[in-house]
Amino acid sequence: MSKASEEAQRQLDRIVALGYPDVADMSAAAFRALARPLIAALERTDLDGRILLVPTRELVSPESLIARTSINRMAGFTTMPPRDIASFLPQDGFEPPEGPFYIVVEPHTGTKYTNREPDVARKLIDSDERIPLTLEEGLALATQHPNWLREKNGFNLLGSRSADGRVPSIWMSQNAPRLGAVWPNSRHTWLGNAFCMARRGVSLFR
To answer: Which of 26, 29, 87, 206 has the most CB atoms at less than 10 Å from its CB?
Structure first.
């Protein structure tokens, strides 16, 4: 197996253990089978382990996923109602690739863009030829690397917005991951603006 396929398999094992098949209303075996084509495709690439396995919202709705993150057994939480969370949709150009799973290449919490207004950070990320993460990708990042919230920084997810213009964010609060939102003209010293270098679905490896 390649480094990328090994890492994707590890991440799949983690979300299965966290109960994602229950969220998807299917068996663990059926859930794993949906990821098999992508993991098999990764075996034929030279990507390293700096990837993030992301299930699409068609497979697992994002509303319940923050509660499946944790740091030192402190479960993630949000004060936003489910309908509010579901309203954060990918912006034009940041839609996920087709398929129940895809990967993000070289995800980062965006430390370089800490304490920047989302609208300003978006322009900087674009000029650096990077791609802002979406809500689903940020939840995957907090699930697979929860300690990054403590060791690096919380982050805005500029690839998604609600109809009123708010941007979803994940940060440490009460010693646990918290999902919230910020306005596009606000800045916070503890929030970076998360990004990646690429998104790839199984079709892009053929």
So the answer is: 87
Question: Which of 163, 165, 170 lies closest to 118 in space, CA to CA?
Answer: 165
Distance between CA 121 and CA 193 in Å, rounded? 7
**What gap in Å lies between CA 122 and CA 192, rounded to an integer?**
11
How does DSSP classify residue 91? P
What are the pLDDT digits (tens) for 144-184? 999 999 999 999 999 999 999 999 999 999 999 999 999 99
Contacts of 137 (CB under 8 A, 6+ apart): 52, 54, 104, 107, 157, 159, 194, 196
Distance from C-alpha of 172 to C-alpha of 49, rounded to nearest angstrom = 25
List all residues 6 or more positions away from 76 whose beta carbon is below 8 Å from its beta carbon. Answer: 66, 67, 68, 69, 70, 142, 146, 176, 177, 178, 179
**Residues of the chain falling short of pLDDT 50:** none
Helix (H, G, I), strand (E, B) or coil at 78: strand
Q: Both tokens of residue 124?
A: 């900087």
Asked if 129 and 106 count as a contact pair (C-beta separation under 8 A), the reply is no
**What is the value of pTM for the model shown?**
0.96
